[in-house]
Amino acid sequence: MDKRRALVIGAGPMGLWMARNLVKRGYRVTVYDKKRNKLKKIEGGGISAAKSLKEALSSSSLVVLAVGASNAAALLPSLMSTVSGKIILDISSVKTPVAKALAKHRRSSNMVVLVHPLFGPGTKKLEDKSVVFIPFRKPEEEYRVCTEVFHPCKILRMSVETHDRKMASAMALPRLLILTLLRSWSIDDVKPLTVSQKALMLVASPILSESPSLFKEITEKNPYTEKALINALKTLNQFRNNPSTASKIFKQLQTKKLVKGYAKIYQLLEEAASKTW
């Protein structure tokens, strides 16, 4: 087994990003996906397509799961039972399903590293990016793997529960609110005419370009999404029942830093105008 040989399971955008990232770090990388058509255009640059999952697993020391939380949770039990001495790196954006699948495999000889890169597949520079690291069984060894794979990212250590609670507010809620807003505009036949509307459309663009499976994972598979929605609805009901509440919160949140950000948003809108609207 080659110690600098990695297998990436999942040839989606983030899986391919991980493959390229590992090549830069000196790994020979094989990519496997059950949808064989995804593998046709990935040969070259230190990356090869796996002929079979079994063969690729046997020759790799590092196995990256880039298949989403539900698929990772379904795959992990059999993976933990059939391979040994591997480093298994899960990059899914929701960790509760993965943690439940691993509950019976804490004594496995495989090292499980649970991470969540807080950036997308378009990322080229890592200096200002962050990765969540979730200790599983051997925190120090797992942390070393995380730093090796994602250096120079900032590493944020969290528990499974803390991570998923935060991601419910940071990822699931914004997606659902943006969806609600866009649907409201569509129902009322409101076009994006104002600067604030266009800024929100700009925010919506990367969300709407995600795969439906990723959107579903982030919004439906996180057990804390419902709580985040309930809290948001409480605030909206406050605005409805006592309109002055909105003005008070607005003043509390308004800062010089956010006000200065308007100029940057305006510049981005002007640059994107000819392509977006």
Can you walk through the features of this model?
The chain is α/β, with parallel strands linked by helices. It contains 11 helices and 8 strands. It folds into 2 domains: 2-158, Rossmann fold; 162-276. The radius of gyration is 21 Å and the shape is globular. The model has no long low-confidence stretch (mean pLDDT 91). Residues 4-277 form the Prephenate/arogenate dehydrogenase domain. Keywords: Oxidoreductase. This is Prephenate dehydrogenase.
CATH architecture level-2 label of the largest domain = 3-Layer(aba) Sandwich
Low-confidence stretches: none
Helix-strand string: EHEEHEHEHEEHEHHHHHH
Q: Tell me the β content.
A: 15-25%
Apparent shape: globular
Q: Order of strands in the sheet with the most strands?
A: 3-2-1-4-5-6-7-8
CATH class of the largest domain: Alpha Beta
* CATH homologous superfamily caption of the largest domain: NAD(P)-binding Rossmann-like Domain
Secondary-structure-based class equals: alpha/beta
How far is the N terminus from the C terminus?
52 Å
Radius of gyration: 21 Å
- Total strands: the figure is 8
CATH topology of the largest domain: Rossmann fold
